[in-house]
Design a protein that fits this description.
The protein is 52% helix and 2% strand. By secondary structure, it is mainly alpha-helical. Among the domains are: 55-135, Four Helix Bundle (Hemerythrin (Met), subunit A) (Up-down Bundle); 136-175, no CATH class. Helix 1 packs antiparallel against helix 2 (96-131).
Length: 180
């Protein structure tokens, strides 16, 4: 006589997480590729390197020219939006705390626009470097900065090694100043 096998419980399917609500963000800056990196930079598709392609050739220069112009356009549009908002929202509130809140908000926006203005100036300088065939090369050591680094930071003027050394020096100087 065969030994009876104990009855096994029925397999239960793993619990499914509840479905996510079908909402879309108000603004999606860029799609992500399989590697997890953005597939566009300021609306310009990422550069696809070709085998044995010469560094900073005309095609690559045009790619970065497009990125820089698109970025500059975005910044200029933001400046216009801010100025229009500040002009339309300017009011002489009778309450002192309301006036202070508005002034603080405007001061914050103006500081942000000032940083963007400086960035626009840096973009213009970078566009000049492209025109002079000096773009993409480290200002300190002269090596290639690299396509991917330039896509991450189009206004970069230092290779990653020189930038790292600069940051280390800055931290050391800051520590000395705090110690004194």
């Amino acid at each position: 006589m065969a030994a009876e096998q104990p009855e096994q419980p029925a397999a239960t399917p793993p619990e499914q997480p509840p479905p996510k609500p079908a909402t879309t963000p108000a603004r999606t800056p860029a799609r992500r590729s399989r590697s997890g990196r953005n597939s566009t930079i300021h609306g310009v598709p990422r550069y696809s390197l070709r085998t044995r392609e010469k560094y900073m050739n005309e095609r690559q220069q045009e790619h970065f020219r497009q990125i820089l112009h698109a970025w500059k356009k975005e910044l200029m549009e933001e400046v216009d939006r801010t100025m229009n908002h500040m002009q339309s929202q300017a009011a002489n509130f009778p309450d002192a705390s309301d006036r202070a809140t508005q002034e603080e908000e405007f001061a914050f926006k103006l500081r942000t626009r000032d940083r963007e203005r400086k960035l626009i100036r840096k973009i213009d300088q970078t566009l000049e470097l492209i025109e002079n065939d000096e773009y993409g090369w480290c200002e300190q050591c002269g090596v290639e900065i690299g396509i991917r680094r330039l896509e991450a930071r189009p206004t970069a003027t230092l290779c990653i090694d020189c930038k790292t050394l600069d940051e280390i020096k800055e931290r050391q100087v800051a520590k000395r100043q705090v110690a004194n």
